[in-house]
Amino acid sequence: MELNTDFSRRVAIHAGRMPWVASPMAGVERRMLDRIGDEVARATSIVRYAPGSHFSPHTHDGGEEFFVLEGVFQDEHGEFPAGSYIRNPPTSRHTPGSVPGCILFVKLWQFDLSDRTQVAISMRPASALRRSPGYGSRPAARSEPRLVRRAARSG
Questions:
Q1: What is the pLDDT of residues 58-75, one digit of tens each?
Q2: C-alpha angle 153/67/41, rounded to 5°?
Q3: Which of 6, 24, 34, 51 is the most buried (most CB within 10 A)?
Q4: Residue 17 phi, psi dihedral angles, 5° rounding
């Protein structure tokens, strides 16, 4: 599939007017903004997880990054409420889902393949970001977001 693949041209899309397209997992739908490829693709999408839905465990060979627009995204690395930015580098693995449901802005396969920096940034107070051990943090100044990094896994 090719959708809005000429990056030399400006495209304006009103995502709220686009239909939701079912993904291979029940309860997970997408609004595709750009895409080069089929199910494994370089893509930018708005993704909606219905309450209680999840995706099967998978590896992001080309990396992924997403911003939680609504709800709470969850995986084995933590719970990330609206306002959270997550950056999973190439070869990262997780089992994503959402008990309450969520909407994400997602970009896939847009990394340097040697990049191994994993990041989670929350725009909420530290008490609102629940994460697994292995993520480190630094205090944020009042005017900057909270930054959380996790070292890349070896092997």
A1: 998 999 999 999 999 999
A2: 70
A3: 34
A4: -95, -5
